[in-house]
Every structure is written in C-alpha cells, then in structure tokens.
Write a structure and sequence with these properties.
This protein is of the alpha+beta class. The chain has 2 domains: about 100 residues, Alpha-Beta Plaits, CATH 3.30.70; about 80 residues, Alpha-Beta Plaits. Helices cover about 30% and strands about 40% of the residues. It has 4 helices and 10 strands; from the N terminus they run E-E-H-E-E-H-E-E-H-E-E-H-E-E. It has a 5-stranded antiparallel sheet with strand order 1-3-4-2-5, covered by helices on one side. Strand 3 and strand 4 form a beta hairpin. Helix 3 runs antiparallel to helix 4. The longest helix has 15 residues. It is elongated, with a radius of gyration of 18 Å. The N terminus is likely disordered.
C-alpha cells in the first residue's frame, strides 16, 4: 500500500490531521476508484486534482485483482458538494477508470489506517507512553533504552488522538499509510 500527501496550496491540511477543519461549506469525502493497473494512471488521477487546485488529504493505492490488472485508489478529499460532484464526474471521464464510488454518501463504510509512532521513552515518560499505548491497543514493534516505535491501527481520528497524547511525551517521528475504506453490508 502506498500513501501520498499532495498539497496544491488550496488547503493547508495534512494527511496526518484528518480532523474537520470547519471550512465553510466544505465536506470530507472518501472516494474509491477502480482503475486499470498500468503506468501513468495514478499520475493522471493526481493531475486532475492538482490541475484544478483540489487537495488530496489521503491517498492509498494497491492492486486488488492480479489477473484483471485492476487497482483500487482510495482517497480522502474535501470540497463543497458541487466540487465533490465535479471531481467524481471528472474521474469517471479518465479512460482507465472503471468505477468511482463516494463511500461518504453511498451508505455506511469502514475506514482504517495504520500509523507508526516513534516516542522517546525514559523514566516516568516511558511508563506513561506504555500506558497510553495499552489504552489505544498499540503494539510495540521496536524498543530501545531511549525510545519505542508503536503501531496503531484504526480510524483516522484514533490515530490523531494517539499522536496528540504522546506528543508531550516526546513524539519524535510518525508515518501513516493513509485511509483504506470499504462499504459495509451486502
């Protein structure tokens, strides 16, 4: 899975802070786009966004059908309802795109993300970091005498909350995959 954050200048939001920015009239939407897995398709999708000044908060891409050479692009973006409709229509016109689904409006969906967090850990701060990790069901995937690397999986808001709590303890670095999402039910 690949994660990429694009900044077209239209928004100062990061893939590492997917919380509602309270921008007037803008909504957060998760789009699932099925495309041919061939060179240049991702560049065309990204070009559509950057060429029109739209921002992508989160982007993940992976091949989902090896025999059919199909990939799934899951992206989180923001815009007014009219802008979101325009994005979906323009994505649908790109030739190697098979389907465009707006998971935000098509019914309940499940969103998950994986994050790795490197946190300083000595003395009482080490104990507190482990307490917070236990609450969030974070796994310790690396440990030294000076630091931990925690793995957290869950909704983007859960990863944001974990980062907020360990930041005062000495959050040194983090990496996040971006959102993966599927519709619930039949």
């Amino acid at each position: 899975m690949m994660a990429l954050k694009l900044d077209s200048g239209a928004s100062s939001h990061s893939a590492y802070d997917l919380r509602d920015p309270n921008l007037q009239g803008e909504e957060r939407h998760t789009l699932a786009v099925m495309v041919e897995n061939e060179p240049g398709v991702l560049a065309r999708v990204i070009g559509l966004f950057s060429g029109r000044g739209y921002n992508i908060d989160s982007l993940t891409v992976a091949e989902v059908d090896h025999t059919g050479h199909t990939s799934r692009i899951t992206m989180v973006t923001r815009g007014t309802p009219a802008v979101i409709e325009q994005i979906k229509a323009q994505l649908g016109r790109i030739v190697p795109v098979h389907d465009v689904h707006d998971l935000t409006v098509e019914g309940p969906s499940v969103e998950r993300e994986l994050g790795l967090y490197k946190v300083q850990g000595q003395g009482e701060r080490r104990v507190e970091a482990l307490r917070i990790a236990e609450i969030f069901r974070a796994k310790v995937v690396d440990s030294t005498l000076e630091s931990f690397v925690f793995e957290v999986t869950g909704a983007p808001e859960k990863l944001d909350a974990f980062a907020d709590l360990v930041r005062p303890l000495g959050l040194m670095d983090m990496a996040r995959t971006g959102v993966a999402a599927l519709r619930r039910g039949a």
